[in-house]
Amino acid sequence: MLDDSLPVDAEPYDLLHREFIFKYTSICEIGIMNLTTDLQAFLLIFSRVTSVLWLLPVFSSKAVSIPFKAGVSLLVAYLLFDSVGIHRSFNNDPYFLSLLVLKEVFIGLAIGFSVKMLFMAVNVAGEIIAIQSGFSFARFMDPLSMTQATVIEQLKNLLAMMIFLAMDAHHLLIRAIVASFREVPMGSVAVHQSFFQYLITASGRIFVTGFKIGAPIIVTLMFVEIALGMLSRMIPQINIFIEGVPLKILVTVIMFSFSLGVIVPVIVNMFKGMDGEILRLFRMMV
């Protein structure tokens, strides 16, 4: 006898809605898998962006709070997430994911270090001038780097920072970060011997560039030293170590004012070639 509560063509209870439930389960699994892939990709993007920004002169300062640094890194990573294509799939192995994060951190540190070297050249110029002029005896605490710095070194750093922002070099850096995901896809970094040779060459170029930046003052102070040495030979009664320091400080301040027309173009050309150096660095990591 048939049950009046069910239609005649009704399927048995064990088969009722079985296919729909199976399809719903598959859709959920696919959604969870895509969500996991997106989270892993965002983590890798965030690792690379954070490594770059935390080496910049402004963001590397201890005066900038860690939540602010993390917030800016999250914002930049979020803006880059849609523009960066995910060309590979990720598995759920935590060790493999940790390896990918380390690779992204390495790429970010390489980019940040290439920019950091430009400012290190300015620091070298300021330090050489400070030693020659006598400003190295008067050091103070730099609130940005939280280290002891001289007046000349701080002036050079501020000048380089203003030029960096005035010529929109930070826009070049952001475009370099975007280009890094195209030139060096996530998880595909390979370190070659040429990469280490480039680091050695670039490190040596720091002193060459620093000497170019401070050349007008360095050469002038060298002639002042020669003149003081000749004066001490002709008039031995003069205490050159006492009388020469104020003279060298005066010459340094005057030459720094008159040599800005030479120093600024050198720094500008140095920052203009930043994107080319970063692109060259990318090609050594693929």
Q: Can you offer a commentary on this structure?
A:
Helices cover 72% and strands 1% of the residues. It is built from ten helices and two strands. It has one domain (15-214, 259-283). It is an all-alpha fold and 286 residues long. The model is unreliable at 16-35 (pLDDT under 50). The chain has helices spanning 18-53, 66-81, 94-133, 151-166, 169-183, 193-213, 215-234, 240-258, 260-272, 274-283; strands at 140-141, 148-149.
Summary keywords:
elongated, 286 residues, mainly alpha
Distance between the termini: 75 Å
In total, the number of domains comes to: 1
Mean pLDDT over the full residue set = 78
> Helix content range of the residues, please?
over 70%
- The tally of beta strands, per DSSP, is 2
Task: State which percent range the strand residues make up.
Answer: under 5%
Q: From the helix content, strand content and strand pairing, which structural class follows?
A: mainly alpha
Give the helix tally: 10
Strand order of the largest sheet: 1-2
Output the helix-strand order.
HHHEEHHHHHHH
* Radius of gyration of CA atoms, rounded to a whole number: 30 Å
**Low-confidence runs:** 16-35
Largest sheet: 2 strands, antiparallel
Form type: elongated
